[in-house]
Amino acid sequence: MSFKEPSDEELRKNLTPLQYDVTQNDATERPFQNEYWDEKRAGLYVDIVSGEPLFLSSDKYDSGTGWPSFSKPVKKASVTEKTDRKLFSTRTEVRGSQSDSHLGHVFNDGPPSTGLRYCMNSASMRFVPLSELEQQGYGEFAALFAHHD
User: What torsion, rounded to 10 degrees, do the Cα atoms 14, 15, 16, 18 define?
Assistant: First the structure.
């Protein structure tokens, strides 16, 4: 899947105002009032701008924060991390590696498997249910859900 960075005009046309603000202006959506914080279905979360696979539902957990949280990305190369000093503390920002869109932040208070909490904005992602992986071009990820028959 080759990615061509969309123009600002294309982004404004194809994204909701919240999706644009989060991905392009590093905004943060409201906790407990976003699309995927309580999503329980099996599937894949992909970058809303590039379509790049980001997280598996099997790595999602309830962090109690009101945002979708994951223990790890589907591939480490899917995301880039950079130091964020915008607020009063230093945090690690997570961005889509192809789109360079703001996704959220990663913290060191996650579950024992990795100790990481990828706290993401629903507005930066699109959820692809397991039953639609093949038809939406993500069939290669279906095998990762073999235990969900």
Answer: -170
> Going by DSSP bridges, is the β-strand pair 102-107/117-120 parallel, antiparallel, or unpaired?
antiparallel
At 127, list the tokens.
């959820």
**How is residue 7 annotated by DSSP?**
P
Whether 146 sits among the annotated catalytic residues: the reply is: no
Q: Which of 119, 120, 125, 130 is catalytic?
A: 119
Whether the pTM exceeds 0.90: the reply is: yes
pLDDT at 149 over 60: no
Look up residue 35 and give its two tokens: 């699309």
CATH for 8-141 (3.40.50.300, 3.90.79.10, 2.170.150.20, 1.25.40.10): 2.170.150.20
